[in-house]
Amino acid sequence: MFFLPIPIALFILFILLMPLLFAIAPALAFAKLGLNPFCGYAFFILCLVGSGINIPVHREEVPQTVPRDEFTLLVQRFLGIRIPQVSQRVIAVNVGGAVLPVMLSIYLMDKAPLNLIFAGTLITSVAAYLLSKPVKGVGIVMPAFVPPIIAAITALMLTREYAPQVAYISGVLGTLIGADLIRLPQIRNLQAQFLSIGGAGVFDGIYLVGLVSVLLA
Q1: Is residue 206 part of a domain?
Q2: Which end of the chain is more exposed for a tag (fewer CB within 10 A), N or C?
Q3: DSSP code of 68?
Q4: Lowest mean pLDDT: which of 102-116, 167-181, 197-211?
């Protein structure tokens, strides 16, 4: 038989309060960072909106792997002329998953010792690298809730006073470094024509880092 560990009325109350908890979470997170709580709503909304915006930073030519059409095959067979197939690959930076979180991380660096930030970022980078993997046709895939939890636990182990700041900075930078930047050569081997740093499967982890890691700390 199945028994609830809490009274049914309390369980129903918790379910009803879930939307409210998610609504006040950004304010609580920013309050722990020592910033204006009302800025939390604007920042997280901007991150959500910015997740659909990618800024191109590099373009390169890559071999095109799509099947050749019949005309191209005829030209190659009868005229002996080989028509190279190349296409452009765009490497971009996601606004909501990289630009805005990194800007906030840089701002917060003055509020915590750099040695603690470096140690936390290093640990989170290693964890993000081990937990992420490139998937053809998808990009980087990683468990969204794991990076913020690791960042929060690491920050609490390193410091109590600066735990929120260290958790956020190390969570954001560690996820970007370990899951995106270090794996960039592997992502290029997937022959994708568009690569977004901080986008796709990494954005979920970055967004939750800004929320879960600070709340846990």
Answers
A1: yes
A2: N
A3: P
A4: 197-211
Q: Tally DSSP H helices, then E strands, for the chain.
A: 10, 5
pLDDT digits (tens, 9 = 90+) for 166-187: 998 999 999 999 888 888 777 7
3-state DSSP helix/strand/coil % of the chain, to nearest 5: 65, 15, 25
Task: Specify if 137 maps to a domain.
Answer: yes
Q: Distance from CA of residue 125 to its chain's centroid?
A: 12
pTM of this prediction?
0.75
Distance CA(5)–CA(75), nearest Å, equals 73
Q: Are 202 and 97 in contact (CB under 8 A)?
A: yes
Domain of 98?
20-55+91-216
How many domains does the structure of the chain reveal? 1
In a domain, 201, yes or no: yes
Residue 124 lies in a domain: yes
Distance CA 147, CA 168 (A): 10
